[in-house]
C-alpha cells in the first residue's frame, strides 16, 4: 500500500505522479483492455510477447490469474461486457476464448497467420479478429462452429480491428498498408478509407462508439464516427504508438518511443504534463471505465497504473492529512 502525507507545506498541487508497478510478465506488454464496470468492480487484461495474458483487478492491479495455452506471443486481448469471458489473439495462429472464473479455454479459433487483435461486440454475441493474412474475420459466438465472415481489402498486415458502432454492424481497421478502413457487416465491403503517409501505429474507439483516435508518426488524430470527419489533432515530440481518451472526453494520454506518457487537454490538444517511469517504449495505454486511472504497458515488460487525479485517495493510493494526525 502506498501512503502519502499531506500538510500545509505539501499540498496536492505539489505531489508527483507515483505509478503502481504490476510485475509478472517476462517480455514486452503490447496491449491492454479494461472491462466495463461490473457488480464486482472492473478488470484489466494484458497481452505480452511472453504468451501468457494476465487478468487483474482493475482498480489495484492485483493479479487474479494467467491464461495458459498459447504457444506464441499474445498480441491482442479483450474482456466481454461483464468480464465473464476473455478473448486473446496470438502468434500461434489462433484466437482463443476463455472463462475468466476458472481460467479454462472455451474455444480455439484457427487462423492462417498471426492474430493481431480481438474485439467483442457490445452485446457480446460477436468476436472480431484481425490477422497478418490481411483478413478481418467476424465470428458469430452463438454459432461458433459456423464459418466466420471474411473482410478482405487491406494490402499488408492488419494491426487492429475494432467495432465502431453499438449495433455491431460496423468496424474499423488499421494496417501496415498506411490505411484506416471502415467496414459494413451487411455488405461485407469497405465503405470508407483514410490514407496516411506513415503506417498507423494504433487505434482506439471510445466505449460509446462516438470517437476514433488514430496514432501515426508523432500525431494523435481524433475522428468523429457519426460525421466521419477529423475533429482534432495533437502533435507530440516523439513517435506515438498509443493513446486513450478519458471517458469524460476532457483529457487524453499518449505515449511512444521516448518512454514518456503525455497527459493532454482534449479540447485544446495541448500537453498538461508528462510522466516518466518506464524504461522502454510505451506500447499501450488505456483509461479505466471510471476514469480514475490509466494503465500503461511497455517494452520493459511492466504494467503500470497512473492516477488521473493526483492526490486523490483511490485504490492503493492513500493520502493522509498529517495535520489531522498530529
From TrEMBL:
Protein name per Swiss-Prot or TrEMBL: Serine-threonine kinase receptor-associated protein
Similarity section: Belongs to the WD repeat STRAP family.
One Pfam family here: WD40
Organism in which the protein naturally occurs: Dermatophagoides pteronyssinus (European house dust mite)
Encoding gene (name): LOC113792954
Domain of life per record: Eukaryota
GO biological-process terms attached to the record: spliceosomal snRNP assembly
Keyword Cytoplasm recorded: no
Lineage: Eukaryota, Metazoa, Ecdysozoa, Arthropoda, Chelicerata
Entry's Gene Ontology molecular function annotations: RNA binding
InterPro entries named among the record's database cross-references: WD40/YVTN_repeat-like_dom_sf, WD40_PAC1, WD40_repeat_dom_sf, WD40_rpt
Keywords from the UniProt entry: mRNA processing, mRNA splicing, Repeat, WD repeat
Coiled-coil ranges (or none): none
Amino acid at each position: 500500500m502506498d501512503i502519502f502525507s499531506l500538510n500545509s507545506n505539501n499540498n496536492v498541487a505539489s505531489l508527483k505522479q507515483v505509478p503502481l508497478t504490476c510485475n509478472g510478465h517476462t517480455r514486452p506488454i503490447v496491449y491492454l483492455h479494461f472491462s466495463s464496470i461490473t457488480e464486482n468492480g472492473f478488470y484489466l487484461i494484458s497481452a505480452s510477447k511472453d504468451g501468457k495474458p494476465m487478468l487483474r483487478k482493475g482498480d489495484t492491479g492485483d493479479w487474479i490469474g494467467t491464461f495458459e495455452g498459447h504457444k506464441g506471443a499474445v498480441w491482442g486481448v479483450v474482456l466481454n461486457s461483464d468480464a465473464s469471458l476473455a478473448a486473446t489473439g496470438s502468434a500461434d495462429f489462433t484466437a482463443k476464448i476463455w472463462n475468466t472464473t476458472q481460467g479454462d479455454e472455451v474455444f480455439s479459433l484457427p487462423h492462417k497467420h498471426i492474430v493481431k487483435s480481438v474485439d467483442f461486440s457490445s452485446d457480446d454475441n460477436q468476436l472480431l479478429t484481425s490477422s497478418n493474412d490481411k483478413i478481418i474475420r467476424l465470428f458469430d459466438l452463438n454459432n461458433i462452429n459456423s464459418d466466420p465472415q471474411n473482410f478482405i481489402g487491406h494490402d499488408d498486415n492488419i494491426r487492429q480491428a475494432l467495432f465502431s458502432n453499438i449495433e455491431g454492424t460496423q468496424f474499423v481497421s488499421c494496417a501496415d498498408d498506411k490505411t484506416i478502413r471502415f467496414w459494413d457487416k451487411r455488405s461485407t465491403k469497405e465503405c470508407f478509407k483514410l490514407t496516411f503517409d506513415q503506417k498507423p501505429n494504433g487505434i482506439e474507439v471510445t466505449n460509446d462508439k462516438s470517437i476514433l483516435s488514430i496514432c501515426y508518426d508523432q500525431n494523435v488524430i481524433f475522428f468523429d464516427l457519426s460525421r466521419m470527419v477529423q475533429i482534432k489533432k495533437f502533435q507530440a515530440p516523439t513517435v506515438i504508438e498509443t493513446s486513450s481518451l478519458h471517458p469524460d472526453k476532457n483529457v487524453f494520454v499518449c505515449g511512444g518511443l521516448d518512454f514518456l506518457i503525455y497527459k493532454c487537454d482534449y479540447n485544446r490538444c495541448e500537453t498538461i504534463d508528462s510522466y516518466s517511469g518506464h524504461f522502454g517504449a510505451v506500447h499501450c495505454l488505456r483509461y479505466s471505465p471510471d476514469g480514475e486511472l490509466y494503465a500503461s504497458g511497455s517494452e520493459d515488460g511492466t504494467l503500470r497504473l497512473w492516477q488521473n487525479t493526483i492526490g486523490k485517495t483511490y485504490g492503493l493510493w492513500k493520502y493522509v492529512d498529517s495535520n489531522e494526525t498530529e
